[in-house]
Design a protein that fits this description.
Layout lengths: L2 H27 L15 E4 L7 H12 L4 E3 L10 H17 L5 E6 L1 H13 L5 E7 L7 H9 L6 H5 L5 H5 L10 E5 L18 E4 H4 L14 H10 L14
Parallel strand pairs: 1-2, 1-3, 3-4, 4-5, 5-6
Helix pairs in contact: 3-4
């Protein structure tokens, strides 16, 4: 056998061994990377703002959650919410760890728009599935947004790090797991009237409960910016963050 052929065969063998190792780990663990939070004991709610970092959009939802008896905090993101999403995910991780250190059994996370991508990065890079009891994302470009892609391609100097990372096919988005970790309840809500996140179903995530508002409320007209304050969406969020099993809604709550 020629040295070149031997090298090729050894490389192929190495790949096979690596694949078998990954498969073996998944078989032994059942695809589950660790324990899950007690669904009967809700902890505080951390709300993650969208691109630009404005906390105003989520303030009404936080107030409604507090009225429902929940401890709700809207995070302040670094870099005005336009900086590196990895750094923003570290901010979420710090807040989650602080909640646990204060005695919380777990956290619930609500990510609005790009805040949902930050939440997805947190789950993927910081083991958030072992800390989060439930996750809700609102109009989140989990697979990127055309607007960000256009900005990255046509005006890169005016497209901050988060903008470039939200472009479809970005290295960050392509590096994330394609589906929700086993046993983590995740509700992804979006509106077909979304004028910012195109296509709107970029919010769809394998393994999540995926809901376009119009699939249960056909007459609803909800813009991207109205998602955190719309009564229909608020009702869906409150229901999702309860203690009943998270299931796909079948009727309009309003």
């Amino acid at each position: 056998m020629s040295p070149r052929r031997r090298l090729v065969l050894l490389a192929a063998l190495g790949i096979v061994v690596a694949v078998l190792a990954v498969v073996g780990v998944r078989l032994l663990t059942g695809g589950d990377p660790g324990p899950r939070a007690d669904q009967s004991r809700p902890g505080p709610v951390l709300l993650v703002p969208g691109y630009g970092g404005s906390r105003t959009a989520l303030s009404s939802l936080a107030t409604r959650l507090r009225a429902d008896g929940r401890d709700a905090t809207v995070l302040t993101l670094p870099g005005d919410g336009t900086g590196d999403l990895l750094e923003q995910a570290r901010t979420l991780d710090t807040a989650a760890k602080a909640a646990l250190a204060s005695g919380a059994p777990s956290v619930d996370v609500v990510g609005y728009s790009a805040g949902g991508v930050v939440t997805r990065v947190w789950v993927d890079r910081h083991g958030g599935a072992a800390v989060a009891r439930r996750i809700v994302t609102l109009g989140s470009p989990l697979h990127g947004a055309r607007l960000a892609g256009a900005g990255a391609a046509l005006a890169p100097g005016s497209c901050p790090p988060a903008c470039r990372q939200l472009a479809p096919g970005s290295s960050l988005l392509d590096s994330l797991d394609d589906e929700v970790p086993d046993g983590l309840p995740w509700l992804s809500i979006w509106t077909e009237n979304d004028e910012t996140v195109q296509p709107p179903d970029s919010a769809r995530l394998d393994g999540a409960v995926n809901v376009a508002v119009q699939s249960i409320c056909p007459a609803a007209r909800i813009s991207h910016s109205a998602l955190p304050t719309d009564p229909i969406v608020t009702a869906l969020v409150l229901g999702a963050l309860g203690t009943a099993p998270l299931t796909e809604p079948t009727r309009c709550p309003a």
